[in-house]
Structure formats: C-alpha cells, structure tokens
Sequence to fold (430 residues):
Amino acid sequence: MALKISKKPMKFWMAAVPLLLGSLFTQSVLACSTAAWSRVENPEVTLFARPESRCTGNCGLRIKLEGTQPAYVEDDTPGSLTEDVVSYYARFHIDTTWLNMNDGQQITVFASNASGATPVFGLQVVQISGKKYAQIYAYRDNGSQVSINDAGSELTDGWHSIELMWTAATSAGADDGSLTLALDDVDNVLSLSSLDNDTHAIATSQLGVISGNDATVTGNLHLDAFTSQRTASSATPEACLTYGQLFTDVPSSHHFYKWIQSIGYAAIASGCTATTYCAENNVTRAQMAVFLERGMNGGDYHPPAGTGTQFDDVPANHWAVSWVEKFAADGITHGCGGNNFCPESNVDRTQMAVFLLRAKHGASYTPPPATGTMFGDVSASTPKAAWIEQLASEGISRGCGGGNYCPTSPVTRGQMAVFVQRTFDLPLRD
Fold:
C-alpha cells in the first residue's frame, strides 16, 4: 500500500540511546493489539487498535466517543520502579479530525497520575471559536489545577506530534516545577512554570479518552506511537505517515478517490476483498445495510446476532443476517415485499434516497412534498419523489447529469461512497 509523507514539520521520536535500565517506560500502540498495556479500559466497546488509525507502523488506537464513557490504555511501569519518577517525558501522535465538538467543550486525551490515582498533569483537546486546540494542565500540591492553551496550540485536521515534559519541584517551597508542550517539533508551544508540586511523582499514565469528558462530544479520536521516559528524547525525528491509499484499485487519480478514502478510514467500508474496493460494482441491499448501520453507529459497530427468522430469504447462515435484521429493526426498511428482504438485489437511486434520509434523520422522518420541478425525470407523481428532491436539497445527490436523477438506475460502490460521506459528514481524505 502506498504511503505518503506529510509535508508538515512533524516527527516521530524514537527512544534515546543508550538507555539506562528502567528509563524507557511504555508500550507503543503499534501492533494491532492493546494487550501489552497494563490496563485497557473499555476494550471491545469503544477502544480499538486498527490499521485505519495508524500514524506510523501497522496500527494505531481509535476511540469512539460515547457520552462520558472512558476508554483508554494505561501504563503502570513508572510506579513499579524503586525510586520516584519526578521527571517524566511523554510523546505520541494525535488526529482530532474525526471529533465533533462545539465551542467550550473538551476531552482529556492524556493523563499522568501519582500513587492512589492522584492527578498530576495531562493534555486536553478544547474547542474555541470553531477550532480545536491542545491544552495542558497540571496540579499543585494543594490539589488546585492550572491550565493553558493559545493560538499556537491549534490542532488542525490531520496528524500532530505531541511531546510533554513534566518535572516536580525540587523541594517544598522551591516552586520550580514545570510542564511544557512541544507541538509538531516546535518546542515550548505551551508552558506552565513555577509549580508547587514537589510531593508529586508519576505512577501511571493513560492515553485515550479519560474520565471527566464532555458527554456531547462525538466521533472518533485517533492516537498512535506513544512512548515515555524520564528525560526528553534526543533522537532524530522522523516524518509521520499521513493517510495513504487504502485500496489497490482506487489510486489517487480515481474520480471517487477521496470519498472512498473517507469511508474507508472511517471503517464504514472495508472493500470487496482485503486489498480492493470494486468501485464499479453495484451496491446490493445487504451491503447497503452494512454501509448505513456503520454510518449511524460507527465503523467498529457490531449488530446483535441475527435470528434468521425475520425475512424468508435471509436465513441464520446468511453473511449479512445480523446487519439486515438490525437495518429493519431501526426502521430504515421493511423489506422488498412478501416477507423478503432481497439481499442480493441492487439498490436503485430511489431506494437509496429513502435509506439515506431515514438513516440521517430517523425512521419516522417524512420529507416535504415534492414539487416535480427539480429533475427532468422526476415529476411530483414519481414514486418517492419527495425523498428524491429532499436528498438533492440536502446536497447528498446532485442527480445523474443532464438535469436528471435516474431514479431506477443502480448505485455503484463508488457513488455510494460519495452519498455516505455526505450523509454522515465524514472528513474527506485527499
């Protein structure tokens, strides 16, 4: 798979060498597993090690936000040492593109704690005036917190490198503790100094979505390449890998490339084989059920096990039985008639309009009456004309060309990538 190197001045720090025993603390999120961490909070629900989430290596960490539910990995190596860790350096990569936030909202994505889970310092993502920013915070001995963000800590869409350096005050009353943030190889982007924190020592660190987050923040957080040690790394930085071509049959010159990349990285579509997407193939009704259930519930969603009793033509051993039955349970479709679902039938553009709008607005949604003037081949009396016109009004489909909609034409997998991306407002991947 082709990989592109970011043109932004990012780096991936490797551990400094030589290392003293115990100076390198953590396990990296590089393998497609979180088993190496000392603790995994909420596994198999909202936290996943996935290839689609990588910044470098084979896999990265993706966390689906669901209310205030925490989901993170934890490293307890510092607390196992015989001496206190009073100087601590952590680095990782973060991509907040997929987070949906409003002004004033925040999530905590990294936290280091002293023994007894006493909070010491961490990193948050906050939104201000429509933009996301990195915000660092630290605790004093008296339990009070101080935090800072500014214009230089903006997290634009895409991967960013994060480096945090924390030190405890040297003694009581010295008030010389500190916390600094380096962002994308720029040192001291944020700095907290003169901290009275001499009683703190790092025991554990957590990476992910940690407790105390805003319940209305949704979407996915991507993290990768975490490592930590007692002192800052002096290694030569490496470039972070950006989003590369996912499917061998969809090069960057393909007319649906960025939409297919979008739903691929969102894990809504995994392709027709392990390496190909088959953009020209028609979308079947069974495939449509998978597309839209993942779009509504997230790329890592798994529906309840199907029974095989809901539709006569979707038995318990059908590959999509769980998806089809959940699709029906959500009220997106009632089947194709005669107690059948017609799972292998192609989805036409009329059916697509109904499916997409119900997936977006809910099963009870009813569009405004049709005018019959929007498309040359869709009059007010055309079946589902109101749905077709509303799909166009919302900018999801602009028709098939020449002022027409082509209501009975099948939908290809390439076209569906565009419609799904627009319906669920997924970030585009050029």
